[in-house]
Fold this sequence. Notes:
This protein has 255 residues and is an alpha/beta fold. It has a single domain, classed as Rossmann fold (3-Layer(aba) Sandwich). Helix content is 45%, strand content 15%. It has helices spanning 16-27, 40-52, 67-81, 104-132, 154-173, 195-198, 201-209, 219-230, and strands spanning 7-10, 31-36, 57-61, 86-89, 136-141, 179-186, 241-244. Strands 3-2-1-4-5-6-7 form a seven-stranded parallel sheet, sandwiched between helices. Helix 1 packs parallel to helix 2. The radius of gyration is 17 Å and the shape is globular. 46% of the residues are buried.
Amino acid sequence: MTLSGKNALVTGSDQGIGQAIALRLAEEGARVVVNYRANRQGGEDTRARIQQMGRQAAAIQADVSDIADLGKLFQQAVAALGSIDILVNNAGIEKNAAFLDITREDYQQVVDVNMTAPFLLTQAFARHRREVKAPGKVINISSVHEELPFPHFTPYCMAKGGLKMMMRNLAIELAPLGITINNIAPGAVETPINRKLLSDPKLLQPLLANIPLHRLGQPQDVAGVAAFLASSDADYITGTTIVVDGGLLWNYSEQ
């Protein structure tokens, strides 16, 4: 087990990619703080499954778009496990709207969840690692849309692009503390956020035609990369994005 003795906080780990990452880190030996916003059942289910592996786990409710909640989340995570060695900024949302129609409220929520929350949590994490005088790992779950335009999802693409530059900057700034930071950029992954897509062959088939491996990704495909980046095998990797998309990014075209 490559993460034995390590403690991790995974935001948005009540379902989908976040849940898969939390479970995989636990399989590798980590103790895990699970975070959820409204899906308490999903958060408690993730926590219970981790505990069934014989790992310590806690489930903490927090809305990462709320700055007050963010501070409480990190403090409670440290209190639950004693320290946090690995931070996975996974929580994310998207809003489908034409640029001329998107509201300021939807814009702000997308940016707050996808970019501001990772910024502030990473800051709290780095201060914590400096205080305990120990290195750490930050893993951001970004998207192929940190590179790839996505019409009708402009705030989402802006936030993921910002997350890429945050990661590159902090790879330099946090290196003296022994903290590495990297992004994982999933493509089309089969998660609850894609229910509409999965149930509509008219939407799904053109997407599959753009993916050279001709299948959607699974949450476990992303979780395996996260476990690698959290391990000592990735100690010399920082400031990079690992794309997990079945080849979509370099084969994509608008239909």
